[in-house]
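Proteins fold reproducibly. Take a tokenised chain:

. . .
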Amino acid sequence: MRKYLTLSISFILMLVVVSASFAQTTRERSMKKARAAADQSAKATRVFEQIMATHERSIPRDLLDRAEAIAVFPGVLKGGFIVGGRGGSGVISRRVANGWSAPAFFDLGGGSIGLQIGVASTDYILLFMNEHAVDSLLNDKFEIGGEGSAAAGPVGRSASASTDVKLNAQILSYSRSRGAFAGLELKGVVIKPDNEDNLQVYGMTARDILTGANKISIEKMPQGVRVFPETLMRYSTHK
């Protein structure tokens, strides 16, 4: 009897140790994800602020005010030999009643075939100009140039005269590479939610974060990710 009691106690102690180890691993993973989310939001914020600071070559404010959602994908890598591709990650916030939503995490990718060699890092900014564009984005996989109609976005203070031509586009796209910022017509680029990160950071999928009545208020967002919607609010608070 004493032998069985000893075995039972040993088994219980082993379960306690395993449970404690699992809980610690889970906490460490959550903390790592939170730091990565904060870093991603900070990078996206820096890109957006740097671009908007160059007034003569920035995104026109009236277009920001019309946008339903804004995406920033910093440091997307593009390269290859003969068969090329691009890949990166970023954040997307949607306009809400009092500003902008919590940034949802997305991945950007795409491929191309042609004579090419080398690697380049490019920042992308996408303006989703209506609710239909945002709804399409929330599918499992959204292809620009496929489901989504995109156009190169105009830049600078004098761009207003040309923006009327762009108003039928669901998405206005921009890129910055080697310091040069301009509108860019994207095709064959696939955007999909990174719901592993979204669930780790918010306990919600991208669809839940960006739609519905229960969007996360800025006070309830994790501290590290608030910088992105707070920055968007400085440049556009209404539509």
In short: Confidence is low (pLDDT under 50) at residues 20-24. Residues 160 and 177 are 24 Å apart (CA to CA). Helices lie at 2-53, 61-66, 131-137, 160-163, 195-202, 206-210, 227-235. The longest helix spans residues 2-53.
